[in-house]
Design a protein that fits this description.
The protein has one helix and seven strands, in the order E-E-E-H-E-E-E-E. With 112 residues, it is an alpha+beta fold. It binds zinc ion (2 copies).
Length: 112
Amino acid sequence: MPSGLEFCSKCGSILVPEKKGKSLVLKCRKCKFTRKKDARNIKLLEEKKRRPSVAIIEKDVVPLPITERECEKCGNKKAYYWLQQTRDADEPPTQFFKCTNTKCKHVWREYK
Ligand SMILES: [Zn+2]
Ligand SMILES: [Zn+2]
């Protein structure tokens, strides 16, 4: 059953969304039964959609390996590093560095 589909509680037919003024109602074509679309449900769906971006932020917390590399901003001698494919897959990945100084957090890249 496709998600988001709702059925008439009277006859079991599929309810069709219909605009009624500013709000959206679900209407049964068979018995003319109408129901207001639950605004709270819509909000819950929207919050679920937002979750993936939160997961990406959490990924950033994962500790990265540290290498000896001088930060050009604060002079700190250590930096986190990782590789990232930024362009076409046939090109070499870009090496990224992030200053370990929590007050600086300067990020730079180096092409191999
Ligand atoms: Zn009905
Ligand atoms: Zn720095």
